[in-house]
Amino acid sequence: MSDRDPRMNMPTAVQIPYNIDWIFQKQRCPSRVWWLASQFVITAVGIFSKILLMLMNKTRVYNKERLVDMISKRPQDVPLLTVSNHYSCFDDPGIWGILPLRQACSTNRIRWSMAAHDICFTNKYHSMFFMFGKCIPVVRGSGVYQEAINLCIEKCAAGQWVHVFPEGKVNMEKQEIRLKWGVGRIIYESPKMPIILPMWHEGMDDVLPNVEPYVLQWRKKVTINIGQPMDLNDFVDDLKKRQVPEPTARKLITDKIQEEFRILRMETEKLHRERQQ
């Protein structure tokens, strides 16, 4: 969707103290210098995540090959959309420490991911770090018709990998909350249907607790479970053929992901409990 879409001009009560417009411009048309800086940041963060998650903590990954293969072996023009729960501020980049270094440390292969503007993009230096880390600033409370969602759709159109935390926040209470409909819009409006790969993890909030002093821990057990790819092609095609209103369509698509989350959560929690015994 063009950034000239009239819905982009809808009023919002959300305050944006630091101007983030320039970030979208640079991420839409990255220069060679941008790619070099991004490669440096991605490499440093990738190595750090792998050391912390795989060496300093006891991480077990189920069905890892599904994610690894989707990143490197899917057709070049087919986008990948991964979705997962969000229990800790270290979920991203931490969970990507499970990947081989050739993926975790490659700015060409690693995901694009939305990050809260009021946490990660509060000044120039923080913004540059997260921008080069391929994080897209999302303004929570501004709805689905905002630049972050637009840019995710554009990256899907280019066949790239986008990761979304559809809970829309760090779910510290670990409650089942209604997923945000932005993920439904990305899927519905992507010119090329992405491969949708759900994931669930347990224990990341032990590695980085959600309470002060927010210090990274070690020797904690982390369980990551990669689900089966979701095939929503026929479902989305049917919604479009029946001309289902777009708000309804994105809700129905998001509900499908929520159903898959319920199944994957129960499976992963069981696996994690068995490791604790």
From TrEMBL:
Cellular compartment(s): Mitochondrion inner membrane; Mitochondrion outer membrane
Residue ranges of every copy of the Phospholipid/glycerol acyltransferase domain listed in the record: 80-204
Membrane disposition: Peripheral membrane protein
GO CC, any one term: mitochondrial outer membrane
GO biological process, one term: inner mitochondrial membrane organization
Pfam families noted in UniProt: Acyltransferase (PF01553)
Catalytic activity, reaction form: 1'-[1,2-diacyl-sn-glycero-3-phospho],3'-[1-acyl-sn-glycero-3-phospho]-glycerol + a 1,2-diacyl-sn-glycero-3-phosphocholine = a cardiolipin + a 1-acyl-sn-glycero-3-phosphocholine; 1,2-di-(9Z-octadecenoyl)-sn-glycero-3-phosphocholine + 1-hexadecanoyl-sn-glycero-3-phosphocholine = 1-hexadecanoyl-2-(9Z-octadecenoyl)-sn-glycero-3-phosphocholine + 1-(9Z-octadecenoyl)-sn-glycero-3-phosphocholine
Membrane-spanning ranges: 33-56
Assigned keywords, A-Z: Acyltransferase, Lipid metabolism, Membrane, Mitochondrion, Mitochondrion inner membrane, Mitochondrion outer membrane, Transferase, Transmembrane, Transmembrane helix
GO molecular function term, any single one: 1-acylglycerophosphocholine O-acyltransferase activity
InterPro entries membership: Plipid/glycerol_acylTrfase, Tafazzin
Family named by the database record: Belongs to the taffazin family.
Listed name of the protein: Tafazzin family protein
Gene field: Taz
